Amino acid sequence: MASEPGIVLVGGPGVGKTRLGYEVITGADRQRYVSRWAAAVAATAKTPLGAFASLLPADLPTNPVAMLRGAADALLGHSGTRRLVLGVDDAHLLDELSAILVHHLARTRRAFVLVSLRSRHAAPDPIRALWKDGLASRVEIAALSPAGTADVLAAALGGEVDSGTTQRLCRVAQGDLLLLCELVRAGRDSGALTEVAGVWRWIGRLVITPRLVELVSDRIGRLERPEQDILEIVAYGEPIGADVLTSLADPGLVEALEARGLLWAQQDGRRIDVRLAHPLYGQVLRRTCPPTRAAALRRALADAVEATGARREDDWLRIVTWRLDSATPLRPEVLIAAAGRALAVLDLPLAQRLARTAFETGGDPAAAGAVLCRALLLSERSAEAEDVLAQLAGIPMSANQRGEYALGRAYNLFWGLHRVDDAYAWLRTTRDGPIDSVWRDELDLLDCVFQVMQAKVGQALGGLASLQNRPGLSRRVAAQIPVAQGIALVHLGRLGQAGAVLDSAVELVFRQTADIPWVTEIHRLYRCQVALFAGRLDEADELAAAFYAHAAQARWDFPVRLSCCVQAQAARLRGRVRTATRWAREGLRLFGPQRSALFHQVVLGELAHAEALAGRGPAALAALAQADGRPAPAEALLQPWIELARPWVAVATGDLVRAVELAGAAARYARTQDAAGFEAVALHDLVRLGTVSAAVDRLCQLSEIVDSDLVHAFAAHAVAVADGDPVGMEAAGTTFARLGADLLAAEAYGQAAQGHGAAVSSRRLRAQAALLLDGCEGAQTPLTAGITAPQLTTRERDIARLAAAGLSNREIADRMVISSRTVGNHLHHVYAKLGINGRWALAGLLPPLEPVTRVALPGLDGHP
Questions:
Q1: 333-360 pLDDT per residue, tens
Q2: Is the dihedral of CA 57, 59, 64, 69 positive or negative?
Q3: Residue closest to 187 by CA, chosen among 156, 163, 216
Q4: Quick one: which of 585, 849, 847, 859 has its CA closest to 738?
Q5: What pLDDT shows up at residue 407?
Q6: In this predicted model, which residue has the larger pLDDT, 515 or 788?
Q7: How far apart are the C-alpha atoms of 295 and 274, rounded to whole Å?
Q8: Is 615 left (phi over 0), alpha (psi -120 to 50) or beta?
Q9: Burial call 482-500: b when 16+ CB within 10 Å, e when fewer
């Protein structure tokens, strides 16, 4: 600030440029600077020096040149020997004389000027000349990133925010910090944003408060009636084809609104789609639109899209929805077709609404009922689905309708109502009756899938192999067979074979997504499971993150729940227990009132496991009790996940003897199911709980059966512990660390440190164990009891990693934009926390990673 003439901050509305500028101005050293702040507004845009009225004397001359000289003298004269620091907000609204004044002050070099401009708004020429003439640095202030949104939410709410809520608010706020703050305030005031079990979640619809309406309306600005009409059309029709929009509105006005930044056009194939520039614009416009006007707009949109030929696949679905929402009568067959399309795109509430309307208004009951039943099944509304199935029982059906009906009934009996024996009896009765061979294949496949889910995997694999060899299989059956095989093979620990089968089926499975969407999601889940059990934790993280990103875009909770579950499993295996807890709780939130929906028990078990490893015994016990209180006889295949949690819940509640018993029971249970991977985990838990003799021989056998680096490491660790071999324990710890299983690595290094006689080796291993444990988010196990986590700050960790990579203090200082002395101080703190003597010891402890660097704004003289 001492030498810079000025800064121009440029950004969209709500990105924080005003607050940033104000903090810089008011934070200037008062011994050296005199700070002044002015804000331009539309009301003073034509008043000479209107923005500076509160800073200037009232008796300025009226001659423009004299007025300018008097204003400059007044501002600079008050500064005395100190330098003037002048902030001007929204400088694009300055009157001409005010803009000239700012430029003049910058040229004198006696003032530091900091002005903010809104993107896509023309600035007065003197303000534009500031950066063109080199009188100020132009700095673009970007909208808040998704990661930044997450950080702001966590800081503002003072706790964890679930990922679904973060994504939703990020999508709605679009990086606008001011709107984000208003959304949070509205959510908290209404109770929609609430803290549940330590995690903040948004429950229900978006809340549009009067304050939010006012704020968004200010952003939209003053509109003439024709402009308002266009924005309302887009609000109800977005995304709307440009050809449709210009058939309803003046093309010139549409272009003008796009130029003002209120509309956004994007090429999509051969069509240009138009949207409102911000998601909240539509929310506010629809809220303030009268019902009769809204109905008329929907009818007009339906007519216009129909008149242009409704060429896109979803156009007819939108037409039907507009007509239904505007109370326009529709033929039942049109409703049924639209319901089928809504089902294909997994808009389950709309599919139910359309199908139920058709069902109740005289449509073909078999056709409408089939769509309604399937939508209810996918929504896990099992009791309602059973009611619809009962109504359809005596209705004449085509062969395809009878087949779909038979499958739907079997699914609902098995998974929805958990009447397993009735489901098998229904399959037998239906297959023995008059049914086409295509549907008999479907029912035989379903029988095999039932067997897989009940952990009868050997029997199921035989049936699947036989079915796979049948001639004339439908694509739907052919796509599901390898997925069922992959699930069974993962359970058996035949991971290489499972991965190959699942990978080979990718193209076939995803071609059938619209027809059997649940199969594609299960396929994604078990590809993650292969990587987890194999110990490829980086790959598992990537697959789980991609799964969640995909699921978050869907309109269906089922894949989101599955992706949350596998995210929790991956995080727990790495030792990140708080992260695992957060993912498990997010998944549980999506189950709603269903008592025993598919995978509900697993997510509860995962929550119990993570809470236990975090040392939160009561919370772990409560989650496990909930899992046990939701019996799912159709999901024996998944029960081992819950059994693996039990010993750690016992540890967290202080009963180590019981923990050993439960770990042994979990291993025996897994062995009765031939679940080799689960058995290996349970046996390694015995090693971790101090009972290696009961596990070592069988773990060595399993390391030859299960093709997994993780299981090999389990066995090597068990052998080293059994032999009292600290070198072997250290090697196992190194393997666990390489795989990313940081908690297991910390435990193994801690054991090795205790066994080493050499003080230097013991100290090094303790430091390695402590450093790994530092990343495990407070995990507590019997083997970590003697390890003291160093609790490095983020800055200390970044600096230590750069030092470990061989960078000097000066090089680190340049990259981190701090002083060399600060780097040295941080490194001394790191050495003390890790119990090491200097930089040379860091390389063996820390993997070098890129730090989070800070970019300094020019001219701010150290102010953040």
A1: 889 999 999 998 889 999 999 999 998 8
A2: negative
A3: 156
A4: 847
A5: 93
A6: 515
A7: 21
A8: left
A9: bbbbbbbbbbbbbbebbbe
